[in-house]
Automatic annotation (TrEMBL):
One of its GO terms (molecular function) is hydrolase activity, hydrolyzing O-glycosyl compounds. Gene3D superfamilies: 2.60.120.200, Galactose-binding domain-like (2.60.120.260), Glycosidases (3.20.20.80), Immunoglobulins (2.60.40.10). It comes from Amycolatopsis keratiniphila. Residues 1-16 form the signal peptide. This is Glycoside hydrolase family protein. Keywords: Disulfide bond, Glycosidase, Hydrolase, Signal. Belongs to the glycosyl hydrolase 2 family.
Length: 817
């Protein structure tokens, strides 16, 4: 890469006092907080894949003022406050430390005479990102408008410039955060002491200017092709025709190849005997590109690329898995939110920006999920150089409800912009349009969005919906390259299908409070622990479960929550201020590396569970025909059930048990081998069908039921469920009507199915479950170690089987004599 020289800011070496800027008071300080000043606000070159020699950084102290809707831009007026760009207004580093729905930024600049602007060159002003709507004015003339808080944009301001002297730039910004349907990620106007955080408004990435020829290189498109050992290069010349490109590929100082071709179309640059990029060997080639008009060079840029290829292949166990450069690789990742206590959305320094990524490598990870946020280009550049693969999320709209049509269109436009601007980074392995159903509006359109992203960038994977089993999800669209479930503490265990690999998209979340290093002075997590030793042991065991899931279920990756604490969440490897390591990093690295080594697709898959006991009588059965007493007879075995708060009632045939929301029939034994295949059937009717869960049959584990044959209050449907996974009936049950329910777990096929009245109505892809030694129970479930989901209704003819029943057998069971 050519040497880059940044010209000094017009403010010179002004101190904070001279500039009028004063840092706010952060609740927590990072090791880099006090390195920030008006003279070194992210001074590094901001666009590493399209570098020009001449540029000037416009970060630093700007004038600032809150504004009213429709207010006229304050041309020629000094604004009352000072803000340090590019830190969000809500951050301590900005010096403002509050939110404004509308705001003005103002500063002056001068154009170096040797740039020949207005003669040989134009002047472009570039913005890394402004949240959310921005209008840019130079000397009173609007030169740009952009909507979207995560995309870069630029403006040719040449026509607005004065012949000489100081030039005025004003940026007007509107950011209403979650008061609208704009994509916001985790930002909230009022943080919830949960999983949503402070807002980050205004200019939050570097602003800079550069002289650019009228005929110039707008963007580069770079696609490595390992089969032909070439780089497919496209050069955007802004519609200018008749131009040529000269490109040089270099390995350090060594020239690998030189190519010259028309700038129109795709150019194949030879990369003979290519050195492949991988997490273990993140080799990058340098690329110099000159744009020629005849013999004259009109523009030249430097860039870089890595030779690598993403794909899928079946392992020795027959399950579809992720491949890097044709070889199976397990994607061992953390969830990375990209938040900072001093800069919120913006890391205080470039060293800080790189730090979290470096620690991923120290901890033995090879992948990072950039969660519902984007980052400045330099973050991806660091990932490229360090050898970290990146799952790139699309920042979501707010949660709660479904977005209107205009918001849907804007979301898709911003997603298209994201893919276009990120698709050259070597490290990005795939895109994630939706998370847990947040602001999802249509399952079918989720699939269409995934297909659109794939068409836009076919070289990467598309994970249509991370956590498709969770929360507000509208269900699996069946599209994309990845099936992704969430489970806390997990791990999630989705099995790949014929066309999609599977990953555990979020798990873990073990929390530990560290005094004096918490945003709120206290915190929460998915599971809190008492000390570091417990945290270490819980993490290691959880990761061993990840390896077991990779070997038996075929998951191709896992994502642990998370690299650092964030605000009220205290489940990081580091505290939020990056001051304290919360785990033994050597232990973490050892287990992480063991997963990557051993999750190679050679697992034997699910064991053959055997044929089980023939017949439809079951291995245990409860007819409930006694009509009296405090126990129900097991008519096949000896596991008679003890009754609590249960009433004898009339059933489908003979008697039944009725429950009023506080009773159970405890068999006193472990009747189902939940690590193998089994079936559970029962007649059931509900006295109410509200938003509360109600369980017909389950089996305790001490924490959560190993399975639930249930009414899912969240979905208002019958369900056969594991925690985080439900096979659901298509319709809401009628109150007072008897239904025949059968849940079938087929361990060999890896499925969980629900039958209603003898017909299969749903089936879910589900890997092996952990063995359970708890009691089989009728009338309630277990969750978080508590007895929950008590039935309000009646149960008759409960049967349990040690094998998966066939469709015909279930149909027979559901017939009334």
């Amino acid at each position: 890469m050519v040497a880059v020289t940044a010209l000094a800011l017009t403010s010179g070496a002004a101190t904070a006092a001279e500039s009028g800027w004063k840092m706010g008071k952060p609740r927590l300080t990072t090791p880099w907080t006090n390195q920030v000043s008006p003279t070194n606000a992210l001074p590094e070159y901001p666009r590493p894949q399209l570098v020009r020699e001449n540029w000037q950084n416009l970060n630093g102290v700007w004038e600032f003022a809150g504004a009213a809707p429709g207010e006229v831009p304050p041309f020629g007026e000094k604004l009352a406050e000072k803000i340090l760009v590019p830190y969000p207004t809500e951050s301590a580093l900005s010096g403002i430390q509050r939110h404004e729905d509308f705001m003005w930024y103002r500063r002056t600049f001068t154009v170096p005479r040797n740039w020949n602007v207005g003669k040989d060159n134009t002047l472009r002003i570039n913005f890394g990102a402004v949240d959310y709507k921005a209008k840019v004015y130079v000397n009173g003339k609007q030169v740009a408008a952009h909507q979207g808080g995560y995309g870069a944009f630029s403006a040719d301001v040449t026509s607005a410039l004065k012949p000489k002297g100081e030039q005025e730039i004003i940026v007007g910004v509107e950011d209403r955060t979650d008061a609208t349907w704009q994509p916001v990620g985790k930002q909230r106007r009022v943080p919830d002491r949960g999983i949503f955080y402070e807002g980050a408004s205004g200019i939050w990435q570097t602003v800079w200017m550069e002289p650019v020829a009228a005929k110039h290189i707008g963007t580069l498109g770079m696609v490595p092709d390992l089969e032909s050992s070439t780089l497919k290069l496209t050069v955007d010349t802004g519609g200018n025709s008749g131009l040529a490109v000269e490109a040089v590929v270099r390995d350090g100082r060594k020239v690998v190849s030189r190519s010259k071709a028309s700038a129109a179309g795709t150019i194949s640059l030879p990369v003979p005997k290519a050195k492949l990029w991988s997490p273990d060997s993140p080799f990058l080639y340098d690329l110099d590109v000159e744009l020629k008009d005849g013999r004259r060079t009109v523009d030249k840029v430097s860039s870089y690329f890595g030779m690598r290829e993403f794909g899928t292949a079946k392992g020795a166990d027959g399950k579809l898995r992720f491949t890097l450069n044709g070889k199976i690789l397990f994607l061992q990742s953390t969830l990375d939110q990209g938040y900072w206590p001093d800069g919120i959305y913006t890391a205080p320094t470039d060293q800080a920006l790189r730090f979290d990524l470096e620690q991923h490598k120290v901890l033995g990870f090879n992948t990072v999920r950039k969660h519902i946020k984007t980052e400045p280009d330099r973050w991806y550049h660091h990932a490229d150089k360090l050898g970290l693969l990146v799952w790139q999320d699309m920042p979501s709209m707010r949660t709660g409800g479904r977005p209107p049509v205009d918001a849907q269109r804007q979301f898709k436009a911003e997603l298209k912009e994201l893919v276009e601007q990120k698709k050259n980074w070597t490290s990005i392995v795939g895109y994630v349009p939706f998370n847990e159903g947040w602001a999802e509006w249509s399952r079918e359109e989720t699939g269409q969005v995934a297909e659109s992203v794939k068409a836009q960038d076919p070289t990467r994977l598309v994970n249509a919906h991370s956590g498709v089993n969770c929360c507000d999800s509208l269900g699996d669209s069946g599209k994309g390259d990845v099936l992704d479930w969430h489970a806390y503490p997990g791990p999630a265990k989705p099995m790949p299908d014929a066309k999609r690999i599977s990953i555990d998209g979020e798990h873990g979340g073990y929390g530990l409070e560290v005094k004096d290093h918490m945003w709120f002075g206290e915190g929460h997590a998915y599971e809190m622990v008492k000390d570091q030793a417990t945290l270490n042991s819980r993490y290691v065991q959880n990761q061993r479960d990840v390896l077991a899931s990779a070997q038996s279920c075929g998951i191709s990756g896992s994502i642990y929550t998370q690299i650092t604490d964030v605000e009220h969440e205290v489940n990081g490897f580091f505290t939020y201020d990056r001051q304290v390591k919360k785990m033994d990093f050597a232990q973490v690295r050892a287990v992480n590396q063991a997963i990557i080594r051993n999750a190679d697709g050679s697992g034997s898959g699910a064991p053959d569970p055997g044929p089980g006991t023939p017949g439809i009588g079951g291995v245990h059965a409860y007819k409930f025909d006694e009509g009296t007493g405090s126990s129900a007879k097991d008519s096949v075995g000896t596991a008679h059930a003890t009754l609590t708060n249960a009433q004898w009632a009339g059933g489908v045939e003979g008697g039944a048990l009725a429950f009023a929301g506080n009773g159970q029939a405890d068999t006193g034994a472990n009747l189902v081998d939940t690590a193998g295949s089994y079936s559970v059937s029962a007649w059931a009717k509900l006295d109410e069908a509200s938003g509360a869960f109600q369980t017909v049959v389950s089996q305790d584990t001490g924490r959560d039921s190993a399975f639930f044959l249930q009414y899912s209050g969240q979905d208002q449907r019958w369900a056969m469920s594991f925690v985080g996974l439900r096979a659901l009936s298509p319709e809401k049950p009628e109150v007072g009507r008897w239904y025949h329910l059968t849940g079938v777990r087929d361990a060999k096929a890896g499925t969980l199915s629900l039958y209603v009245d003898g017909t299969k109505v749903a089936s879910q892809n589900a890997c092996s479950a952990a063995p359970s030694t708890g009691h089989t129970v009728i009338g309630r479930g277990q969750y978080g170690g508590q007895q929950v989901d008590f039935l309000r209704g009646a149960v008759d003819d409960v049967r349990l089987y040690d094998r998966p029943l066939s469709d015909a057998e279930v149909a027979t069971l559901a017939k009334r004599d």
